[in-house]
Amino acid sequence: MIGYVTLGTNDLPRAAAFYDALAAHFGVGRMMDFETFIAWGEWGGAPGIAATVPFDGQPATVGNGVMVALEVKTPEDVHAVYATAMAHGATDEGAPGPRGDDGFYAAYFRDPDGNKLNAFCMVRPAGA
Prior knowledge:
21% of the residues lie in helices and 38% in strands. It has helices at 12-25, 75-87; strands spanning 4-8, 29-33, 37-41, 48-52, 67-71, 91-99, 104-110, 116-122. It is globular.
């Protein structure tokens, strides 16, 4: 079971503004806030997300093939999270819409540091 996901950043204040905006869509705020690390979520709640300056002092880099998926309830929520991400410095990796015909609805984007995320929900496929 995933407890939280940590993403590296080279600009914690910029990452903080980005994730503060996304966290608001999930009704959570910062649950830990240190000089080099911030975590968003709710104690005892769903898995959280964190941004950190790498402990080893080396620059943060993006993991190839790594992605964080943020589950929401409706396609409208997917659009709202995507719009918030774009308004706060994200880059597009795939506009909101259905993916395949199995009820998976998602949008893909990269945070200002280049970490890949998506917002998704499951909807009942047509005819099901």
